[in-house]
Amino acid sequence: MSRISLIRRLRRHGLWNTTKWAVLRFAAQALGVRVLRGLVLESTPAEVEVPAGLTQGFQAPRALRRFASDPANEMSPFFIADAIARGDRCYAICDGPMPAFTIWFSRRPTALGMGGLVVHFDPQYVYAYKGYAQPARRGQRLYQAAISRVFAHYVGKGARGFVSYVEATNLDSLKGLYRMGFRDFGSIYVVRLFGRHYTFPTAGCQPFGFRLENRAPRTTNLKAVVPAKAGIQFS
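RESULT FIELD:
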């Protein structure tokens, strides 16, 4: 890391957080240890208006397959097919036919995209994952705009709130989520040895049923869900 980047990080996150970041980064690079922060949101964030001209809402499978046709949207046809088959839903803020921001919600155990690891959680909560803003749209608080609207939808269906995770080294994402009202409830330490992941949740994860298991996700018949000509690129 350059001296300028380090100074910027210190100014943005402070000495203590930057020191923890450096230690965790070393652990990940040298020892193969990753730390995932478990987060929960149990109250509606302040509502944020989206920029003029953008539309928003849950997306139909046809729109999602259109999103998957552009690698810039960070979702492959394989991912879309598997998520639809599980019953996961995507909320998007769109600029015309393509997304400016997308985020996914699941009520079932969900593949993490880290080897064969699957995240489990208390069914009273909804798992929020894969939030992604296009680079040109970052800084417009689209994440909070989406979360503030979807939260009421799921709470109205009986959910207690959202659970999610962020890697402990991702200080910018953590800072943004804390600002929205998410709070830490625990951490999961992930170690990869001899081709297998070993996971160690802290005590705070137990009340939320938040854990990782080495179990391959269910195989989806892509031919039945995705057009045959679509390429497969896991994002």
